Amino acid sequence: QVQLVESGGGLVHSGDSLRLSCAASGSSISLYAMGWFRQAPGKEREFVAAVSRSGSNSIYADSVKGRFAISRDSTKATVLLQMNTLKPEDTAVYYCAAAPYNSINPTIYFSWGQGTQVTVSS
User: Can you list the residues of the chain whose pLDDT is less than 70?
Assistant: First the structure.
């Protein structure tokens, strides 16, 4: 089973950038598709982005398309989420997760990190 730990969250202003990192241990992340999800207070967890096992295919939520970029570095066992032009509505706890294949469906993901808080002030 793969263990995941997110980092890189923080408090930023609207228009700023942040890069989230997800570090994996216990199993090689090259075996899995990796995704990022987020959950704002009072809202359900929502899909943000996902990248295939090879790194060649990525999918994004419409709300972040063109602003966020997901990437993976199997040699460092990390998955990154570069977030640019952040908006107050991006404020949420961000989670990374592992899945057998690329998907926007959170039920496919079987291993989750503890989350990292991102707060964007206007």
Answer: none
